[in-house]
Amino acid sequence: MHAGPPFLLQQMTWPEVKEALRTVQLAIIPLGAQEQHGPHMTESCDAVLAEQFAIRLTERLHPLAFMTPPIALGISSHHLHFPGTISLQPSTLIALLRDIVRSLKPHGIQRFLVINAHGGNQATLGVAADVLTREEEIEFYYAKTTASAKDVMDKHIRSKVYGHSCEREVSEALYLAPELVRQERLAKGELTEEGRWRKLRPGSPLQGFYYYEEMTTNGCIGDGRQGSRKLGEELVETALTRLSAAVRDILDP
Ligand SMILES: [Zn+2]
After folding, report:
1. pTM > 0.85
2. Do 220 and 38 contact (CB within 8 A), yes or no?
3. Which of 27, 63, 221, 240 could make a disulfide contact with 23, Cβ separation 3.0–4.6 Å?
């Protein structure tokens, strides 16, 4: 017998999966990235945070959801000039998601939710939702891990610009996977004064692509030194509560 919640496909036998399919309505797919996270976080950061968050969400939704193996690579072209970064092309990611859908749909899974921990994946997930919903005739959803806890960020985060290897991300890691953080190397983002990035940031009239080194010399945006396990717990648990309620809303009663 399967040892108990949550349903994680990687740790189950096929008879256990078959049994779980009597209640499961949703496949949860963790999605991260392999990319530079400055001097104080390892490059698997987003992949590990997505997986750890997704495990907890699968637990909360038990027995209505199972989790697929995590996708540890994402769209990281903007980080490629830092060593160690590996990026998928958007078309590769969509093809990979389509293959997951086509493998699980014949077994009765009609709804898919990508738990994404990397901002660079969001635009491609928007396209995937459009294409896969129509072409594969399924329901496709995606959520950025703690994005629904924006009010918690606004309450605690003082940096004007943050979002990469910053106080938010360090806090989430200290709570979910502290081995990702090099505590003795914690550094503030070294933002460049010059550069097109200030003209292209979200909220600007003009949008466009820029490389990360145009914006930050050490690869961070924000101040990781201000991160704490406590803030990570508040962010993650608030987001889990909101997201699991939103997911239950789209499932059958
Ligand atoms: Zn990250």
Report:
1. yes
2. yes
3. 63
